[in-house]
Each structure stands twice: as C-alpha cells, then as structure tokens.
What we know:
The protein has about 675 residues and is of the alpha/beta class. About 45% of the residues lie in helices and about 10% in strands.
Amino acid sequence: MVDMRFLLAAICAAGLAGLGGCKSSKEEQPLAAPRLRRLNVVLVTLDTLRADRLGCYGYKKIETPNLDRFAAEGALFENATAQTPLTPPSHASMFTGQYPNVHKIRNTGGFVLQSSSTTMAEILQEQGWDTAAFIGASVLKKLFGFNQGFAVYDDQMPKPDDRMTREYPERSAAQVVDRALAWLDTQSGKPFFLWVHVFDPHAPYEPPAPFRQKYAGRPYDGEVAYMDRELGRLFAGIDRKSPPDQTLIAVLSDHGESLGEHGEHTHGVFLYESTIRIAFLLKGPGVPVGLRLTEQARTIDLLPTVLNLLGGRASREVQGSSLVPAFAGKPVSTEHSYAETLYPKMNMGWTELRSMRTNRWKYIRAPRPELYDLARDSAERANVVAQFPDEVKKLEDQLRKVAAAGGGVSEKVETSLADKKTLDELRSLGYLSGHAGREFDLTGEGIDPKDRVGILKLIHVAVGSESGLPPARRIELLRQGVAEDPTNPSLYYHLGGELEKVGRYPEAVKLYQSALSKGVVSGRLYSRIADLYLREGKKDEAIIHYEKAAQFNPSDYESQSNLATAYLEQGRVADAERIFRWIIAAGEEYAPAYNGLGLVSIQRRDLPTAKVNFERAVHLDPDLVEAHLNLGLIYRMTGDIPRARSSFQAFLAKAARSQYGHIIPQVREELAALQ
Length: 675
Ligand SMILES: [Zn+2]
C-alpha cells in the first residue's frame, strides 16, 4: 500500500538509472517433422468432466446435445484414461505425449513446463499454423509454461476477491467461448490451432440459470449441461469459419471428479476411475463417423494421433501411440496406462500414488496396494490384490518400467520455479538470488491416503463448497483435523483462512508458525505470516517472511510485489526495482509491478518513465486505485490538468474508505484546487 506522504516525499528524491528490459527468449528447436496436412486443429479440454455424466457416454439424466451430436459425427473412446487427476500435469501429457514423470509437471502449482519440452502448439506453429489458446482458470496461466507455441495466450482471469481463501480464479465457459469466437473471426487463410479450456465442472458447482433450476440438487450436472450449451456456440462458430472437411477437433476431459466415491469429494488424492476415466472424442478428416472404440485411449495418445491424422509422426520422445490404426480395426499399443498423483504427498503430507491400468485391471501402488478387476467391478469396490499375485507382479513390472523413464519408483522430485533458461537469465542479470525449489522424496511409503478419508470428509464438511457451517464450528472441526493429522499442510491453510476471515489474526500467525515448527514448510505459509505482519505494521518481520516466501515460490507475484513495496518504503530502491522487474521479466503483466516501477522512477526523478509505468498499470487493471492516484499526481505536476482531474476522479470513485480513508480528503482537496 502506498502512503500519500511517502509518494510526495519520493517525488523530491533524486537519481535516474538506465532501465534495461529482459524477456526470456525461447531457444528455437529444430522439429524434424514432415510437412503436415494443413487442416485447422481445435483442442477443447473440459476440466473435471466425468465421462459418465455425458449423454453420449450413457448418462440418462442430463441433456448434453452438443457433445452427443459431436460424438455421433466422430469417434468416441469408451475406455479413455488420464495419466493423473490433476489439471496442469494432465494437460502437459496431452500437449507433449509424455507421462508426468517425464514432462516433469507433477502437481498443480510449483511446476513449470520447461522450454526444452516440445508441445503440439510448437510443432504446429513451427509449420506455419496460427496458434491461440483461451484458458478458463488460473492454474494454466502462462507462468506455468503452457503458452509455448501459442502466438495468442488469453489467460486473463478476474482478480480473486479474497487472497487468504483463494482457490483458483476462473472465468465462465461463456466468457472463454466469446473470446475464442472473437479470435476466430480475425482468422483468414492460414491454418489455425485453437485450444479452448473450460473450467465450469470444477468445484464450486454453481450453474447459472436455467441450469441451476433444471438440475436442482445436482449442481455438478447443471455445470456440465451449461458447459455443453456453450460448447454448442463454439462448435457453430468453428463450423462457420472452417468447413468440417478442413477441421480436426479433439475434445477431452483432463480428469474426472469423485463426487463422494471412495471418500473423495473432488479430485487429486486418488487414482480411481471416478477421476482417471475421461471423455475422449475426435472428429474430422480421417476420423470415422459414429464409431465407438473400446481400445484404451490415454491422454498421451492425443499428440501422436493428431500428428498421424495430419500425415505426420511423433518424435521418439513421445510415449503415447497413435490411435488411428484402431479406426480400421488394427491393434494399437495402448494396453497399459500409467497414472500418478503427487497431490497426497505435496498437499496433504501423505504418500504419493502410482497406478497401472489395462481395460481389465487396475493396480494401485500404495502402502497397502490395490488391485481391481475392472471388467467385473468397474466401481472398484473389491480389492483383489491377494487373489491375483501374478497380475500384481505383471502390472508392478510395467509400472516400474514407466517409472524408470522418469527416475524410478523411488524418486526425488524438485519443484520447478520457472523455466530453467529464464531462471538462468534472471540470475545473470542479478534479478534473482537464493531461490530454492522444494524437494520431495517419493518412496511409496508413509501414510496411505485411503486411511485418511476421515480427514477428506472433515475438510469437505468444514470448507467444501456446500458447507453451510458457521465459522466457529468450521474452526473447531479444522482444529480437530490438525490434531489428528498434524503434518497436513492443507489443514493449516484451511484453518488459517477461517481464522483470518473472522479477524482472529494473532491466532492465525500462531497457527502458521506452529506448522513451520512441525516441519510443514511452504511459500504459502511464509506469505500468510508476512501479510499478517504487514497488517500489524511490523515491516521488518514482514520483509523476512516475504523473502522466505519468494525463495520457495517466486511466482507468488502478490507476495513479491508486497516485499518490493516494503523495500521501497524502507528506502531500498534497488532491491525493490529488482523484484518489480523480475515479475515483469518472468512474463507476468502484473499491474502492481508496473505501479511499483512507477514509484521507483519517481524516486529517481524520472517522471516520463514513471508516467509510462503508471499508465501501464491502470491499463492492465483499472481497479488499481493507487495507480490512478499516482498518475493524477504526475499529470498535475506536468501540467496536464484535465488528465489529472480524471485520474483523481477515478481514484475517488473506486477507493475503499476502509483502506484509503486517510487519503481521500486530501485527494478531494487536490481535485477541488484543479477546478
Ligand atoms: Zn482439471
């Protein structure tokens, strides 16, 4: 937060530095692919969609006419599986054709797709395709590296209204489809690759009218039906732009949703069919009409299949296989599907899970291993691991083979904070020092997640999207959870969030510190402590904790920006500038960072640069009231009275009294003096 007195004092300071920009430039990789058939390619990913909630997959209690028609006009894979129940790793598998232990995106957050990976978008862009992506949730923002190969990467999300309880900022399918259709309208001639990601079936389930009423009591189904309606608009728009014989479209879910099965409510902890089975539809030249296939189809098979349909071939790095031979009844080598989740390990302090699935069996490697006969028990109710030791051995052997490609069943995993190349560049420019990824030891041993379904239930009851409990009861439940499972990071986040919501800040700080003392360490804990210290005016303590948060998680731009602002207020201008520049250099168009750079420029008496930065900040985020105020002051100083007036008016229109009560009267006076 910027104090008016501080700003006015800063304007009287001296100095000017040359400011060099830094953009990470991607190393061009030669892609030795043959020239591809110039079809338009569209990938639609449906987040958190259970295949068995679509009409075309046999669900009778829903209307999904658009996807049903799509399936009737193309091919539907009845046994399609994801390689992980987590959004970013699953998308990375679709784009690279690799298992998560090979492409190295292992969880939601904390991992960045490296520029050394080759994605579908890069392959097509390299061969002259125009590429664009429209993203439905912040978990796939460009800072995670999914933008490689995309000329347009539209990932601007609404701001989270509440930092302490934020989950994932998202935007509706209607918004995503509108943006994609607008982009399609600008296309003329060149073949295009369009990726549309819709997030609506992800919790919280809040379908808009009329779906809310129509699916009363079944809000998840309501979200799916709503999504289908929006996809209808998308498909119609694609049809208008690109005739069917010129258009290849793939529709896949990234994973499913448990909806209470096996004691899980959402997804991420387990590897059961509820979350691993996905919808997988294809349509276009080379794809038979109305074909339903029973061969296992995996997310890693998408890239080789698309390349095959375009007349190309996947490189050796790709682990998936083309599904095209199956269209002619020929065998495909997709019999074994590996899946993993590190979410229980990294988010809950339990053991990671790995599995190997065939159409007949699923083997789950856990502290207490599981085997299910999917042919007879598709709901995975009876663990038959003791009855079929030969099957277990065969599947364990297969699992070891896949695991070996990534580092083995016992494996050390380090979170990746940014693209390695970007990190090196930033380090060489002095923008970065002392950053340390977190290391996780995957041993397959520890707390078995299935022994902790009580904790999953407790979290669901306390803070699930349908929880109607009063805050005091939520806090009581979560305290009980922390006592039962004291090394579970997510319990501390939930409990701390509840305490903060009701203003019990000292208790929250104490809780976060107790987590650190129990060995639960994360950037998020440090940033929460730092925010709370800042709120109390304890700047030195805040700085120490922000520095720790930044070390663990440099892509937490909000903490970084708060740290830089605190530096600035202590006169550490160079330190502040280094961080603001890092945020922008890392690829994030983050309005507070431009506002901060404006303040740095003012410290250096470089008003033209300050003006440019404040203008950029206001352009990126018209709600950033501080930037309006700063801009108003600059305009006034440079004699641009009309603009000064409108900036002060913008500030006064949006500034919250609770936050800016002490400044508002001064700004009113400034404005009056300008009339
Ligand atoms: Zn997802």
